[in-house]
Specification:
Keywords: Capsid protein, Virion
Organism: Psychrobacillus vulpis
Protein name: Spore coat protein GerQ
Structural class: mainly beta
CATH class of one domain: Mainly Beta
Low-confidence stretches: none
Mean pLDDT: 79
Order of helices and strands: EEHEEEEE
CATH architecture of one domain: Roll
Number of strands: 7
Shape: globular
Radius of gyration: 27 Å
Largest sheet: 5 strands, antiparallel
Strand content: 35-45%
């Protein structure tokens, strides 16, 4: 964009433009031994194969608004988790409906 200013003599003069280079902010160093951040999908991935009880709720559903699934973690993605119950039934559930998970054993966190 060109900017003008009035010179004391009365004639408009083009103002010199300065180019500013934007540099991205420096990222803080990752602590040693820490592989992933503690997002829920990463915690579920670290506990793949463990038996857990998953509590889900669904808004605006007149037939049912809650579901409890007890099963093994098969996989977890950014927006979903795949659970298989002891009878072999598999569930692909969206993380937005997940309230919390309980485990009967120690949880792998890091």
């Amino acid at each position: 964009m060109v900017q003008y200013y009035w010179y004391p003599g009365g004639y408009p003069q083009q103002m010199p433009q300065q180019q500013q280079q934007m540099t991205p902010p420096a990222q803080p160093p990752t602590p040693p031994g820490r592989q992933e951040e503690s997002y829920i999908e990463n915690i579920l991935r670290l506990n793949k194969g463990k038996l857990g009880t998953f509590y889900f709720t669904f808004e605006n559903n007149k037939e049912w608004n809650a579901l409890i699934v007890k099963g093994y973690i098969e996989a977890a993605g950014r927006d979903h988790v795949i659970i298989s119950d002891p009878n072999g039934k598999r569930y692909l559930m969206l993380m937005i409906y997940l309230n919390y998970v309980t485990f009967d054993e120690e949880i792998n966190y890091f």
